[in-house]
Structure prediction request, 432 residues.
Amino acid sequence: MSQHYAGHLATLKQRSDAALARSGFDHLVIASGVEKYHFLDDRPYPFKPNPHFKHWLPLLQHPHGWIVHTPGRPPLLVYHQPDDYWHVPPSAPEGFWVEHFDIRIIREPAEALAHLPKTRAAVLGEADAALDGVVPNNPQALLDELHHQRGFKTAYELDRMRRAQRRAVKGHRVAEAAFRNGASELEIHRAYLEATGHGEFDLPYGNIIGLGAHAAVLHYQHQSPARPGRPLSLLIDAGAEVDGYAADITRSYAAHEGDFAELIAALDDEQLALCDLVRPGKDYRDLHLEGHLRLGSVLRNAGLVDMDPGSMVSEGVTSVFFPHGLGHLIGLQVHDVAGRHDALGREIPRPQGHPYLRLTRTLEPGMVVTIEPGLYFIPTLLAKLQAGPHAKAVDWDRIEALLPYGGIRIEDDVVCTEDAPENLTREAFAEV
Ligand code: GLY
Ligand code: MN
Prediction:
């Protein structure tokens, strides 16, 4: 591990040195951030660190921290360890990363000033992290470059992401079992937390757990305590984190054999075929469009829409059933940065008619992406289809019968390598 970490730091230093040189700064200064409070209240929100900070080291609950990188010197860590008897203060720095930093302990946030460069510094952070004399300036060109490079994971990062997958899959296993036992969304959620060892606030994103028709809501945000009278289907989109690196996994289950179960199996086949196309040189926009074409085949083969798949895509019919992007970059953030920009920050446009696609870059080794096609029965979108020119191609009785099942999404996290892709999620399911 420490070997991987040394390599990771060396990569970050190299990238930062080049970005500093290009943008005319001598120091990279990164604020971890400060706690934020509810309006007119003394209750803090859960703390989420500046992702640039957790890129350098796995400190996730350390507000008022700072990292200073000056080319040619060991990185400096300003470590806030207050004398606080209301809360548990951070313990003394420990772990595989400690030996790589020049660490300065401070008791008060303002003491950081004595350790931070005041001139020619690129300061990354939110405005509220400012100290008297060190104010975040977030130089855009430097951010564009660092964000773009964050798309390429180091061996340390891939190791963290593999662990996050295994953590999440433990939760997915018990969630499926709970569903098959008739559990409510809330009970499934609690079983997931228990199995992953996560609390509500350290998940990489809020669990999406939809039974029946709730599975048609893309980011369904509630967890109903009501047990389903007769379970039909479950869509669970739930992740996990290790050292600040996310997993993002979705599975769909049918309670019994039939049309819906067959659709899940058909989409699963197409999803696997799409995962296999995560290869160097592949434009992710083409992969997304290929996903639509394959969904068109699923709809036609299932007898739901009687149209040629190519026309279904060009006429927007597949978008009624699959109204989101095929996937996104993932890493320190679930929807990682720079999915639609080049290293100079120039936008890489989405295909016409696909407004939610989060990734438009061409794949290269080291990138980790999600592949998450969906097939949903969303009443408002179906109503538009029914009112439009292609209504006659649709078997509305079958659609009506599928509405109570909500929808399907199958999502894996996949590493683009020099040759065959590494499917982090399927490997974790095979292991756990
Ligand atoms: N897991 C939620 C999403 O990717 O949008
Ligand atoms: Mn996702």
Observations:
- Residues 118 and 134 are 6 Å apart (CA to CA).
